[in-house]
Amino acid sequence: MSEAKTSEGAGKARRTRTTEVYDVVVVGGGITGAGIARDAALRGLSVALFEKDDYASGTSSKSSKMIHGGLRYLEHGEFGLVFESVSERRVQGTVAPHLVRPLPFLIPIFEQNRVGLETMNLGLWIYDTMALFRAPKMHKTFRGDKAQKLEPLLKTDDLRGALEYYDCFTDDARLVLENIVDAVGAGADCQSYTEVLSIEREREGDKVSAVLVRDRLTGAERRVETRAVLVATGPWTDEVAKPFGLNFKSQLLRPTKGVHLVFPHERLPLKRAVTIISPVDQRVMFAIPWRGRTVIGTTDTDFAGSADEVHADFDDVKYLCKSANDYFPSANFTPDDVIATWAGLRPLVNEDSEDESDVSREHQIFVRGDGVLLIAGGKLTTYRLMAKEMVKEAIKWLRGAGALADKKLRRPRTKRRPLPGAAGLKDPSGKGVKRLAKSLTRDYPITRELAEHLAWSYGVRAEKLAIAIGNDASLGERMQPDLPYVWAEVEFAVNHDMARTVDDVLSRRVPLLLVGLDQGLDIAEQVADRVGALLGWSSETRAQEIARYRRTVADSRRFRKARDQASVDAHPKAN
């Protein structure tokens, strides 16, 4: 169960590589930027990546947690995107089986639905065909009593039938992290909390020569020389255009906001993800069993403002509750039932379309003559292909500019190369992960439940946690009584997964922000003590970190202020 060599020692260090000039600087540490850095480093390019916050802290940790083929894209005739997506779903299940797992989806068909049962059945045959019949399982059609018994809380009035098909769900933040870990292992210099302030050029209108960066935790600034700059900033694309000296005639993106709500599992105990068509506006969303909770999402509405200020508002919460209650009347969700929310922006390429949901999820790459390349749009499922295309364009530009000379490059083989936690687990069915969990239980003093949690979260890297627990049993104690996370994961987050703040740990490494009944506030001080001891924090820094995490939780609860005000307005005398 030895960990892949590419990830050894990559976690703790914010590795600073000594080099005169980088071949490429990647701006942005979301899934696309992480994939680009990994692809480029594996080819043999010298690479630096700078992310102004934590890795995956933007859209890449605020998705619907799905690796999917885009079934609904068939309706818009985007066959190329569907084929590309179902193919990549297979790839991701092979190179990261511990992070990309099959999940059954149910599509209930009611009398009033615009698309009938037989039409949807035909669509799913096309979907399975485009996957070359290599989906986790083929779809099935259920009618009558069989359809009604699939999910007991689903409404049965006018239910004509239901179709079950398979896509995959993932830990989106950890998918980003493992790409970063592998990139660092391949020689990339990846730095979180490091903001690119500007791009320098040799002369006005000439090629790029360097970027000016600032460490946001220390305030230190430095100049980093590079031959090319690859911008992968997702929904921040238009915001960085001006300071980077990128002049576009119009806004590149049409960002749309996606909000998810987290509820107690017992309120809606699902075995499958269920497709919902909102009675409010006919938009498609899902009810998803996830991490011992139930998630309802997502919205898809145009957003104007800074990408740093994206939160669920009261209207979002009411809309999602109303939509879910239409399909699951007995759940009777209200804003008071919400455990947590998350909200992110889709960085959709701007195009003429009245409906936000009709905007294409395709990506575009812009290559400038000065050595700045920018990628916009795209989706989580196809990040590897996007990264590959971006790096190829960069190499083409570098060679054209004479910047690579006779440098020999390698093929990255990312289609087959496992991510660090998947070394030896090339089995999209998950059998390898299950065998790993059994061996952890056999070789170390941990329970089967804990072994399964660690194996599905960290893959073969879980052995490091098992060893730590074997040396100190207290590290195997749960952080929350109803969730599987243990204290060893906090130390691992810092030493191996590059966490630098309390927010890094509780929002993305051990995401109690999303699933904890108190969103991690009840243990934030203990986490700060452990992280601070590893990173040498002063008492002042510790207090600042706790306060910062409390602000993160408050941001996810902003909708409650509007809810409370609505209650006051409705019952003025009672208040």
Backbone CA Rg:
24 Å
- CATH architecture term of the largest domain: 2-Layer Sandwich
Relevant CATH superfamily of the largest domain: D-Amino Acid Oxidase, subunit A, domain 2
| CATH topological fold name of the largest domain | D-Amino Acid Oxidase, Chain A, domain 2
Structural class, judged by helices and strands? alpha+beta
Beta percentage is 15-25%
Q: How many β strands by DSSP?
A: 18
CATH class categorisation of the largest domain = Alpha Beta
Number of helices: 17
Which regions contain 5 or more consecutive residues with pLDDT less than 50? 1-18
What is the mean predicted local confidence, pLDDT?
91
How would you sum up the global shape?
globular
Please give the domain count.
3
The main sheet comes to: 10 strands, mixed
**Helicity range of the residues?**
25-40%
First-last Cα distance: 61 Å
What attributes characterize this protein structure?
single chain; 575 residues; alpha+beta; FAD/NAD(P)-binding domain; D-Amino Acid Oxidase, Chain A, domain 2; Helicase, Ruva Protein, domain 3; 3 domains; ten-stranded mixed β-sheet; eight-stranded mixed β-sheet; 17 helices; 18 strands; globular; disordered N terminus
How do the helices and strands line up, and which of them pair or pack?
Elements: E1 22-27, H1 31-43, E2 47-50, E3 66-67, H2 79-95, E4 100-110, H3 117-130, E5 140-143, H4 144-150, E6 159-170, H5 172-185, E7 189-191, E8 194-201, E9 208-215, E10 221-231, H6 237-241, E11 256-264, E12 273-277, E13 284-290, E14 293-297, E15 301-302, H7 314-327, E16 340-346, E17 363-367, E18 372-377, H8 383-400, H9 431-443, H10 448-458, H11 462-471, H12 488-495, H13 502-509, H14 512-515, H15 524-535, H16 539-556, H17 559-570
Parallel strand pairs: 1-2, 1-10, 2-7, 4-12, 10-18
Antiparallel strand pairs: 3-6, 4-6, 5-6, 8-9, 9-10, 11-14, 11-15, 11-16, 12-13, 13-14, 17-18
Helix pairs in contact: 1-5, 1-8, 7-17, 9-10, 10-11, 12-15, 15-16
